[in-house]
Design brief:
The structure holds 3 protein chains of 3 kinds. Chain A has a two-stranded antiparallel ribbon with strand order 1-2. Chain A is built from 25 helices and 2 strands. By secondary structure, chain A is an all-alpha fold. Chain A is globular, with a radius of gyration of 24 Å. Chain B contains 3 helices and no strands. The N and C termini of chain B lie far apart (about 50 Å). In chain B, about 80% of the residues lie in helices and about 0% in strands. Helix content of chain C is about 75%, strand content about 0%. Chain C has 20 helices and 2 strands. Chain C has a two-stranded antiparallel sheet with strand order 1-2. In chain C, helix 10 runs parallel beside helix 20 and helix 11 packs antiparallel against helix 12. Classes of the chains: A mainly alpha, B mainly alpha, C mainly alpha. At the A-C interface, helix 5, helix 6, helix 24 and helix 25 of A face helix 6, helix 8, helix 11, helix 13 and helix 16 of C.
Chain lengths: ~575, ~100, ~500
């Protein structure tokens, strides 16, 4: 049963991708319909897969040679992420029906989105490191191609390339890990590795651990690899919601969570993870505070929230990290899709051109505010429960300095969230032009996600049980749902966090009175606008590489005499090596 | 010095001379000539090797084969030179350096 | 003289067809068509003895055929080269029909092409050092003519001259190496040399000379300077052959020669790995800022030869077949991917420039908007370059993985670092591959695309076939590994390990 469902969850979107492509761009209606049907069917298959979780491979394919056996394991972490990918995926596809109507190259768009959904499911369910890496790269490929979907826009092309190269660069860490597993265990099964990780030489295990951290940071857009995510906002908004908020960027956190039992003992690893999470959460929150592009605010906010999840893994809160991942996937997808509806309606992403949209877009305003409140962490929304759980774990199992930083970041989160809501929906309209009403498909997709934002925290109990029962190497205990809620509600830390969040809110409310403080912080704001120097670092690397390439090109003189000298040079190299070796 | 050594040294000297020619000449015809000098060095080496291993006939037949093969290369090289002269109007290598970078 | 066997037919068929193609092309009324069909039929017929030889090899081991002093020896390593050159040769012949239709002297073109295919099969089977050189030289001569086929074009002529001179220098160095080996061991038979060879200075020098001599043809950095010119100026089908098979045939020759000297020093592995690293980094950096598509692809061949050298170097160093299997798998995959890339780029070059009577290069800018008018060609080019960049699930990643895995299996930290470095190079290579894809999928077409004519259907057939192959091998590597796995073992056996 499970093997069939796994096959369907991966296969349906892929068959759909082929079908949409074959349908051809002349039959746009049919492409919309095919995409919706296949993505919803995949979502249904993934939901059906949820109850049949377990820790044994449900599907194995023997390839032989260096590729070993490819296995799919429907354990708690996997089926959960697969369900998120397909459900949010199908909602993004439904949203696209309105959003992408009339666009050219629809076939390419849907084919890539569906290819991505299938690959993301594959990534989540992979039981072997090799297979995991393959799907990891396929998602990166889709991400790149969709960011650069509007190839005529140089910014989109640059954003896509940067995303591809940075995630690939980080991905080398995962590749090295997979290769080490292969070299020492003869196969790359994750279960084999987790069971025998302690038999690896210390240096190799450390290389794997930090390699995985690099891969995760690149994929989840964590400091110092985060620079690609804001650039990725050139993608069509449903893609930002799906790939760059709800699913692919979570793969890094997923990776850390999955291998946590093997790596937690590596000297310095958990500290490094905490540091990466803290820096990302804090710096990105500051950047979100000064950004004026609506999608960029959301992108920085995604980096910041992913920082919470990474931090949670660092302090050992695997469940908390995954719980926050679920909440974030739902409310951030909602925020992105709602933002997409806004952008689609007013035709700009610049928040300075918005304002006062509550009157023209009441429905979108409502769902957006629900998402925003969840992001800020206000009670009873899903973001509240999971963020409190993360902070709770951080207080009890992590260093105090990190906890203090995360707490402060929560306050800044509230501040930038309210700033964003205010700039978009309240005050007076600053831009001109007609506001289009959002379509039915847009309302449907955002409505479902809003309902999810209000209720997904109720799944905590079942989710915890699923994780505890199907992850034999993680030392997880399943908290009963009510105990969990009770712990959060009664913990003093919760009220401390709420107080900080309230401070953040108050800071926005009294922003005019705090003008003096704002001026004092102006240098910080400028640093945040400049991306704290990471942009400059990126540029410097690119320029240096290009300069090296240019100077090497000068050696290709085209003159035959120099070419012959190359042969003589080669002879010298060979004789030198042989003389040294012999 | 044994015969083999003397012959090998002269073979390498010929090849070196040809190589030197290739490094300094700017004229395509001279390039072909330099190549020919190099090949002659190889021929000497082959015959010497045949003699040193008591298989003079083998060495000579190798040399014969090389001469045949090399003639083909030389002919094509000269044909290229003729064509270059026709198309470019010069045999200067510096005029044949447009493909660069 | 022995009976004609499948082995000899496989080599003889293309070689016998060569004069036939030329004569038929000269005498027939519709000369181009006659030459093309004769060539195609000859290559298709050669698949029959190929299949028989493969079966014989599988059933009764290495096939040996002797004609007087000349011996041909078919092992799995030779079979791989035969498969690659026949496969790509057939597709390129098919492709050349429309591509070359307006050219004069097609009988020479097809005769040379088929001859080169036959010669490369023979090269793989050479059992003695001098024989190896003869095949190698014959291959060079055949390709000189093909590179400079557009002999009225100054650029082609320039490329042909450089290619000829540098090849000739390499060939002389190989001859010197052969002479040293003969003087020292008294034999030229590869197996006998391996038995005789001891660690002497003369043999070491012979190895160095042959490394460089064959290395020129393999385009090992810094002997690579002819390659970007020749591979970009040749007719596109020939570019595909040159990049996909001919430099690989050079590598086969190099490995056969070094194999015979396998016991002379333990440094061959390190040497090959060193050149692998040089090739990867130089090839990628040289390609990074390149604006001419075919020249870019030519530089990328340098990088891919680097991966093969790395894999073989690991195998020779560690005396384990895994690295060689990866390298040879990569050789096949590279043949498919680079063949596809050149054929797809060539299809665009043909429709956008050549068909309009213009011999200018295809630039990256010309690709703008190609997908809207030539969707299958653009898809083929995209699949090819993304596969070359090592993105799964395309063929290139699978063989790179095999090479890297072999590197990590040595558990030598230097080699592990080298494997990571190779991975880093793949990332760097995406910096020039991916923009090609972006350009092709723009909406605003370039001036060239706007004016371009439709692509002839026959030009698309090999492109589609190779696209499917690159994806299929990526999804299911055993499709080609049945060739590369035993070939890797045969290669190691040729080194005496």
């Amino acid at each position: 049963m499970a093997d069939w469902l796994i096959g369907l969850t991966i296969g349906l979107p892929w068959i759909g991708a082929l079908a949409v492509w074959l349908a051809g761009d002349r039959r746009a209606e049919m492409q919309h319909r095919l995409a919706v049907v296949f993505s919803v069917a995949a979502g249904a298959a993934a939901l059906l897969l949820l109850p049949s979780y377990g820790d044994a491979p449900a599907l194995s394919i023997e390839v032989g040679s260096v590729f070993g056996t490819l296995t799919f394991v429907p354990d708690g972490l996997g089926v959960f992420l697969a369900a998120v990918a397909t459900v949010v995926g199908s909602l993004a596809v439904i949203f696209s029906v309105d959003y992408m109507r009339g666009e050219a190259s629809l076939g390419r768009y849907y084919a890539l989105v569906l290819l991505f959904i299938g690959a993301m499911v594959g990534l989540a369910l992979s039981g072997s490191l090799f297979l995991l890496f393959v799907f990891w790269e396929i998602t990166a490929l889709c991400s790149y191609a969709l960011i650069a979907f509007y190839n005529d826009d140089p910014k989109a092309v640059a954003g896509g390339l940067r995303a591809l190269i940075i995630t690939q660069f980080g991905g080398l860490g995962l590749l090295a890990g997979a290769l080490i597993a292969y070299a020492y265990f003869g196969d790359t099964q994750i279960s084999t590795f987790l069971a025998r990780a302690d038999t690896l030489p210390e240096s190799m295990l450390a290389l794997m651990a930090f390699g995985a951290l690099a891969a995760a940071a690149a994929k989840s857009a964590q400091v110092p690899f985060h620079t690609w995510l804001p650039g990725a906002m050139e993608a069509p908004t449903p893609v930002s919601a799906l790939i760059h908020a709800a699913t692919m960027v979570n793969a890094g956190v997923y990776l850390l969570a999955r291998f946590y039992p093997a790596f937690e003992g590596v000297a310095g690893w958990t500290t490094a993870v905490i540091l990466v999470g803290l820096l990302s959460a804090f710096l990105a929150a500051l950047m979100a505070l000064v950004a004026i592009d609506l999608k960029r605010v959301l992108a920085y906010s995604t980096i910041s929230q992913l920082g919470y999840m990474v931090y949670a893994v660092g302090v050992g809160g695997v469940f908390a990290s995954q719980f926050h991942l679920l909440s974030h996937a739902v409310f951030k997808a909602l925020l992105f899709l709602a933002a997409g509806a806004v952008i689609h309606s007013v035709g700009t992403r610049d928040m300075r051109q918005m304002g006062g949209l509550r009157r023209e877009l009441p429905f979108i305003r409502t769902v957006f505010v629900i998402g925003a409140l969840a992001l800020a962490g206000l009670p009873l929304l899903n973001g509240f429960w999971s963020k409190e759980l993360v902070l709770e774990d951080g207080l009890h199992h992590g260093p105090v300095w990190a906890y203090a930083g995360m707490l402060l970041a929560a306050g800044i989160t509230a501040l930038y969230t309210f700033r964003m809501v205010w700039l978009v929906f309240y005050g007076e309209r600053r831009g001109a032009g007609h506001v289009h009403a959002p379509g039915l498909a847009m309302k449907l997709a955002t409505g479902i996600l809003a309902a999810g934002t209000l209720t997904s925290w109720l799944l905590a109990g079942g989710f915890g049980k699923m994780l505890a029962e199907s992850l034999p190497f993680h030392d997880l205990h399943a908290p009963a749902a009510l105990d969990l809620y009770e712990t959060i509600v009664t913990a003093p830390a919760t009220y401390l966090a709420l107080a900080v969040i309230a401070l953040g809110l108050a800071a926005w409310w009294w922003r005019d009175r705090l003008a003096g403080a704002r001026d004092a912080l102006a240098p910080l704001a400028r640093a945040a606008e400049a991306d704290f120097g990471f942009e400059a670092l990126n540029r410097r690397i690119v320029t240096a590489t290009a300069a090296a390439a240019e100077s090497l090109r000068a050696t290709q003189t085209g003159l035959l005499n120099w070419n012959v000298l190359g042969i003589v040079g080669g002879l010298v190299i060979v004789l030198a090596v042989l003389a040294l070796g012999a | 010095m044994s015969t083999l050594e003397i012959m090998l040294v002269s073979a390498f000297a010929l090849v070196g001379a040809g190589l030197y020619g290739l490094l300094i000449t700017r004229n395509l015809i001279k390039v072909v000539i330099a190549l020919q000098i190099m090949v002659k060095g190889a021929l000497v080496a082959l015959v010497a090797a045949g003699q040193a291993s008591d298989q003079l006939a083998l060495g000579q037949s190798l040399a014969m084969t090389v001469i045949v093969a090399d003639t083909v290369v030389a002919v094509i090289g000269l044909a290229f030179a003729v064509q270059v002269k026709r198309v470019r109007g010069t045999l200067d290598l510096r005029a044949l350096a447009e493909l660069r970078g | 003289m022995g009976e004609m066997t499948a082995l000899t037919w496989m080599i003889a068929l293309p070689l016998l067809a060569t004069p036939a193609i030329y004569l038929i092309g000269r005498l027939a009324r519709d000369s181009s068509r006659a030459a093309r069909w004769t060539a195609l039929i000859a290559l298709l017929l050669a698949w029959i003895p190929f299949a028989q030889a493969a079966a014989d090899l599988h059933d009764s081991g290495t096939q040996i055929y002797t004609l007087g002093a000349i011996a041909l020896r078919l092992d799995d390593f030779a079979l791989l080269l035969a498969a690659l050159s026949l496969g790509l040769g057939t597709l390129v012949t098919l492709y050349s029909g429309p591509y070359m239709q307006a050219e004069d002297g097609q009988e020479k073109y097809y005769a040379s092409l088929v001859a080169v295919v036959g010669v490369m099969i023979g090269l793989g089977c050479a059992a003695d050092l001098f024989n190896l050189w003869v095949w190698f030289e014959a291959m060079a001569v055949g390709t000189f003519l093909l590179v400079a086929f557009y002999h009225e074009q100054p650029a082609s002529l320039e490329a042909g001259v450089k290619y000829l001179v540098q090849s000739a220098v390499g060939s002389v160095l190989v001859l010197l190496g052969i002479a040293l080996v003969l003087a020292e061991t008294g034999t030229l038979d590869l197996a006998a040399i391996r038995a005789e060879a001891s660690s002497t200075t003369l043999l070491l020098a012979a190895g160095a000379l042959m490394t460089i001599g064959f290395g020129v043809k393999v385009a090992m950095v810094p002997m690579h300077t002819w390659l970007p010119d020749a591979h970009s100026q040749a007719p596109s089908g020939i570019s595909a052959m040159l990049s996909g098979v001919v430099i690989e045939a050079g590598l086969v020759a190099l490995l056969r020669a070094l194999g015979a000297l396998g016991g002379v020093t333990g440094s061959w592995g390190e040497l090959l790995m060193l050149f692998g690293a040089l090739n990867m980094v130089a090839g990628n950096l040289l390609a990074l800022r390149q604006q001419q598509v075919k020249r870019l692809l030519a530089y990328s061949s340098l990088a891919h030869i680097g991966y093969m050298l790395l894999g073989v170097g690991i195998a020779v160093y560690a005396r384990e077949a895994a690295g060689a299997q990866g390298a040879l798998f990569h050789m096949l995959n590279h043949g498919l991917m680079k063949g596809l890339a050149f054929l797809a780029a060539g299809a665009l070059l043909y429709t956008l420039h050549i068909a309009a009577g213009d011999h200018g290069p295809l630039t990256v800018r010309d690709l703008d908007g190609a997908a809207s008018r030539y969707p299958l060609i653009a898809l083929g080019l995209s699949v090819a370059v993304l596969g070359l960049g090592g993105l799964p699930p395309l063929a290139g990643f699978m063989s790179k993985w095999q090479i890297f895995a072999a590197g990590f299996e040595t558990r030598n930290h230097w080699i592990e670092a080298l494997a990571i470095f190779a991975g880093l190079n793949s990332v760097l290579s995406l910096g020039y591959y991916a923009p090609l894809v972006n350009a092709a999928y723009r909406h605003a077409p370039s001036e060239a695309v706007r004016r371009g004519k439709p692509v002839p259907a026959l030009l698309q057939v090999p492109v589609i076939a190779l696209t499917v192959a690159v994806v299929a091998v990526g999804v299911w590597p055993p499709l080609l590994q049945w060739l590369s796995e035993p070939a890797g073992r045969a290669l190691l056996a040729a080194f005496g390990f």
